[in-house]
Design goal:
The complex is a heterodimer of chains A (301) and B (324). Chain A has 301 residues and is α/β, with parallel strands linked by helices. Chain A has a single domain, classed as 3-Layer(aba) Sandwich (Rossmann fold). Chain A has ten helices and five strands; from the N terminus they run αααβααβαβααβαβα. The longest helix of chain A is centred in the N-terminal third of the chain and has 26 residues. Chain B folds into two domains: 171 residues, Thiamin diphosphate (ThDP)-binding fold, Pyr/PP domains (Rossmann fold, 3-Layer(aba) Sandwich); 126 residues, Rossmann fold (3-Layer(aba) Sandwich), CATH 3.40.50. Classes of the chains: A alpha/beta (301), B alpha/beta (324). At the A-B interface, helix 5 and helix 6 of A face helix 3 and helix 5 of B.
């Protein structure tokens, strides 16, 4: 316990690459960021004794790609009206968001050790008035997409090129407010809006299929007026290409179905519903860190 | 503008001409939008019921109609505020506050977004349409939410003044906009200050605290009591949250009791706020008038009378505190 405690908050701050970096360099940078974020996040959950590690790990590749290579926002421009907006609708993966923000310099890495501690600003769900880089106080599901639509409308009114990204869970799409917002996004032709669905097919206690099946999700999103793209949500190259290329159809908002696995890539967590909010014990943490000790092979071609 | 032909001749407030506050609302919103490009309207198909047709013609891009989708409407307003806009959400208060309560809590209040929630046709304004369309709960629901200023204007001038204040003040606010016609109570230079009550009738025997559509009825009650030699203090309390506790406690100390009267539930609205204050700091006798149940079929005026909020009913409640 103590050996690990000492190195609780040791993640390097990676920042952004030079804009002239090659695609391969960017992908390698994002992959390394995602690996470091997972290492730090596993410690975060272990030492806090709580968290949503399964969902954290399914979302971290999307978060690392967005903050590492896509979003036009930096620690210096968190209040710039023309920054891109990223809204984490699945607010319960706040640990992954905080860790990602720290990896890219928005938060001090050392502060991550306060996660869930009394009076910490790193609450179990993010608070924009306390944590720089957070755009909305999410937690109740189905809130992020309407907020993202509102922001995208504001950008359109301003004739601004700023973009809006929102990450939702897949189980979260069972909330009707998402579909209200998708109708509005289509009606207002918000092609600066990209909805990313963390399609890990697991919700709190069961699969989405067993609970309230979302499929055919691609057809549903298309019927609601979105340009639909499916990607491997753990492939940084695919994520980079898609997230930086939207919109795909003029006048249409983009719907990215990111196929992921909860707990990816840890052998005993991946795709295991028990790891929705289970906390790794010392042995499990050691094994997870061991599995994350080598840079992941690039899955992109 | 006026909804009655009665000329403003008599001294009684009951005989003055009456106005639909939505007219002041739309006029003020257009003025504010003209002066500040950040101001937008957000509606749930409620263009007609909010009387926003002229606004839509004048500012076609700045009336965001998300359709019949209140949760989306409030979330979109929070997102517009994130983008630097100042949204005035205009929707029937029953649907705005009931259907989107969690968005009001999380996206607006907790996120501290500069969103103005304008509850149209609140209370029992929809009369015979019944309790599904009544919005007697809105004040009690929103009072429970931190970082939310709650305003219940009593007249067109107060409605406009509250909107002008909201437009230039950062933060969440809820403003009730009455459709049931009310007489004007204030002078044209009236300035709205949140948390500030106004003594509209002086008196030291008993106090009546009211707001919204019931305030003029409270003033009429004080006219009636005056003929009996009872000097009732009528306090206009446009801001339910934050409450002007100084005005409440002065009334508790200086008069024999407090009647609250409002077009809202008797559980946790203005009456509850006043009671919470006096019971902790200066206990006094109180009667809370309001709507205690899902109301039966009837017009708003009929129902207010039924629940003891005619001038005579309010006078009865006040008299009982003096003589009882």
């Amino acid at each position: 316990m103590t050996a690990l405690a000492v190195e609780h908050a040791t993640m390097p701050v990676l920042g952004r690459l030079d804009p002239h970096a090659t695609r391969d360099e960017v992908i390698a940078h994002v992959a390394e960021a995602a690996r470091q974020i997972r290492i730090q996040d596993a410690k975060l959950v272990h030492f806090a004794g709580a968290g949503h590690i399964g969902g954290d790990f399914s979302a971290i590749d999307v978060l690392a790609t967005l903050y590492g290579a896509v979003l036009n926002v930096t620690p210096e421009t968190v209040d710039d009206p023309e920054r891109d907006r990223f809204i984490l609708s699945k607010g319960h993966v706040a640990g992954a968001l905080y860790t990602t923000l720290a990896a890219f310099g928005f938060l001090e890495v050392a502060e991550l050790a306060t996660f869930l501690k009394p009076l910490s600003r790193l609450n179990g769900h993010p608070n924009r008035t306390k944590v720089p880089g957070v755009e909305a106080n999410t937690g109740p599901l189905g809130h992020g997409l309407p907020i993202a639509v509102g922001h995208a409308i504001s950008a359109k009114l301003d004739v601004s090129r700023r973009r809006t990204y929102v990450l939702t869970g897949d189980g979260e799409l069972q909330e009707g407010s998402n579909w209200e917002a998708m109708m509005a996004a289509s009606q207002y032709e918000l092609d600066s809006l990209t909805v990313i669905v963390d399609r890990n097919r697991l919700q709190q206690g069961a699969t989405t299929r067993e609970t309230n099946d979302l499929d055919p999700l691609d057809q549903k999103a298309a019927a609601f007026g979105f340009a639909v793209v499916e990607v491997n949500g753990h492939d940084h190259g695919e994520l980079l290409d898609v997230l930086s290329s939207a919109p795909f159809r003029p006048g249409k908002p983009t719907f990215v179905i990111a196929h992921t696995h909860k707990g990816h890539p840890i052998s005993f967590m991946a795709n295991n519903v028990a790891w929705h909010h289970k906390v790794p014990n010392e042995g499990q943490l050691a094994q997870a860190l061991d599995e994350l000790s080598l840079p992941a092979p690039s899955t992109s071609n | 503008m006026t909804t009655t032909d009665t000329p403003p001749v008599s001294g009684s407030i009951a005989d003055r001409p009456r106005f639909d506050c939505r007219d002041a609302y739309v006029r003020t919103l257009a003025d504010l939008a003209q002066a500040d490009h950040r101001i937008v309207g957000v509606v749930n198909d409620s263009v007609g019921s909010s009387k926003l047709d002229a606004f839509k013609k004048a500012f076609p891009d700045r009336l965001i109609n998300v359709g019949i989708a209140e949760q989306d409407m409030v979330g979109v307003a929070a997102g517009l505020a994130n983008g630097g806009r100042i949204p005035f959400v205009s929707a029937a208060s029953c649907f705005l506050t009931g259907r989107a309560l969690e968005q009001i809590k999380a996206d607006v209040a907790y996120s501290d977004r500069n969103v103005k929630l304008c509850g149209m046709s609140p209370g029992m304004a929809y009369g015979e349409l019944g309790p599904t369309h009544h919005s007697i709960e809105d004040i009690a629901w929103l009072r429970a939410i931190d970082n939310m200023i709650i305003v219940v204007p009593a007249s067109p001038i107060e409605t406009a003044a509250a909107m002008r204040w909201a437009a230039v003040t950062h933060g969440p606010a809820f403003i009730r906009v009455s459709r049931m016609a009310v007489p004007e109570i204030y002078d044209a230079d009236y300035e709205f200050v949140p948390g500030r009550a106004h003594i509209v009738t002086a008196g030291d025997d008993v106090t009546i605290i009211s707001n919204g559509t019931v305030l003029w009825r409270a003033i009429a009650a004080s006219e009636q009591l005056a003929t009996e030699g009872i000097a009732a203090r009528v306090i206009s309390m446009p801001t339910v949250k934050p409450l002007d506790t100084d005005a409440v406690l002065a009334a508790a100390r200086e008069t024999k009791g407090i009647v609250t009267a409002e077009e809202a539930t008797t559980a946790g609205s203005l009456g509850g706020a006043v009671a919470e204050t006096v019971v902790q700091h200066h206990p006094t006798r109180m009667t809370i008038l309001g709507v205690p149940e899902f109301a039966p079929t009837g017009s708003a005026g009929f129902l207010l009378d039924r629940y003891g909020m005619s001038a005579a009913g309010i006078a009865d409640a006040a008299r009982a505190l003096v003589t009882g």
